[in-house]
Write a structure and sequence with these properties.
By secondary structure, this protein is α/β, with parallel strands linked by helices. It contains 17 helices and 27 strands. The chain has a domain at 142-207: Alpha-Beta Complex (Oligo-1,6-glucosidase, domain 2).
Amino acid sequence: MENAPLSPLEQRIIAHLHVIYPNLDHKELAQKCLTTFQLDPATESPRPHRNLWDQSDIMLITYADTLRRKEEAPLETLHQFVKSTLSDCISAVHLLPFFPYSSDDGFSVMDYTTVNPSCGRWANIVNLSKDFKVMGDLVINHCSSRSLWFENYKAGVDPGSRFFYEADPNTDLSAVVRPRTSPLLREVQTKNGTKHVWCTFSHDQIDLNFENPDVLLEFLRIIHLYLEKGIRWFRLDAVAFLWKIPGTSCINLPQTHEMIRLLRLLIEHYAPEAVIITETNIPNQENLTYFGNANEAHLIYNFSLPPLLINSLVTGNCRHLKQWLMSMTPAQQGTTYLNFIASHDGIGLRPTEGLLTEWELETLINTMKRFGGKISSRTTPQGEAKPYEINISLWNALSGSAQQGPDQWQFARFLCAAGVMMALEGVPAFYIHSLFGTENDVERVDNTGQFRSINRHIWDMEDLEHVLNTPTHHQKVFQSVTKLIQIRRAQSAFHPNATQYVLHMGENLFAFWRQSLDRRQSLFAVYNMTDQPQSFNLSELNLIATDDWTDLVSEHVYHDHLGKVTLMPYQFVWLANKRGTIKKDT
């Protein structure tokens, strides 16, 4: 058996390991990977370039405990709310880290194998996965300084004694790209003397050392556990920083890409319906590399969309948004984008690099400050503090214009933003607070001292149910956005991989054309991005003369294909030649 031929799966694993760990016994490590993952070497490979999604897929992003009801596990409260209220809107739920943690609202994980008791139990995750696709965070770059692993590291025992990345403080690390302003290295007293550990994000988040293959094997055990508990979508958190080589930027290194390919290979052989999403909040062209050759991430976050879309809506000029969209090549079959406008983090500014000028960026930042936003910074390789993200709720971010400040168009602007996100190539993802129009939580910022808390409000279910059942802006947002989602889910032209072309209609109207994969449905999405009425002629859209065209939003039918259309401030139309019907298998 020692000389038995290797299976195709074994050969592929070994090829990846050879790149990552050139000096190890690749065959032995490949066997350890298969054994740890409980994977038969003879497992057949899934067919490549499969689209594991369609137009009915909409994701909800939420913390496990965003919704709370007295004497009920928050995970149970969330499940009941999504099942009873959003089952015709949502197909997937991204549960932000639900593990015991020491800081960063979950992203400083103390134990990857346990559900935080204050949120619920693994049974809650399993039950949720029976009704919805569940995406879990694999916080793979770092873990908590209060984890058992780090305690073992300090004591010099396993598991953990060699789990963390160390560096000599005298080494020139000025080229390292950082998303924070804190010192990169933290001095730690260990059984083996004073050490300096690498901390990309904070001194409570110690970077793991994937140069040690035992760290890889530990994470394979963790991933396998998640698969057993029903998680099928995996968000690789902060993965761009995974591999370190002093003297380089330590971001987007070849070993990082190879590690993603290896993880995907193993995961999709265990569960062919599984999906990998990389969280890489970096400049746009760097972000696109995480598709690989359709062999890395199935989905990548469209990180440039939030700042560019918000900038367009508050300035009334969509030039940069349009130019960016034109530069985005269609994703290969089997890959697509994850579109979002708001998240648990802020509005990332690195993805605007090369897209907005310094003056435009400063104008955007000052506008968001005017609307109650906070600004988080990072340290550049030159040691300068530079704005990294804007912390603000989406509702407040769209409360007015850069020229006039807060105005009467907040709701229309908010709905327009949702309408753009839902129509673009890719899978839409709604942060839960964007369904309610939740305002800036200034009190939470004061309590935590963290700017990101401004958009991490905790809703008491009695309060939420009250505002959703009475005439409030929360009710208006919820009803309007969920109705728009239901319309969107029925249109084959909104398939994440359907054809998309940007239309040239000036700097005030943002427009593009989508066509279904079977070519039967065409849809023109046209948005007024300003606080003034804007008009256009239907002749500019090149409508097929033999078809009737209906605006799916207003249900108005356009019989005159050469007529003029006037859009009120932030109004938009989804003009379609056919009306789709919702699939019922989600």
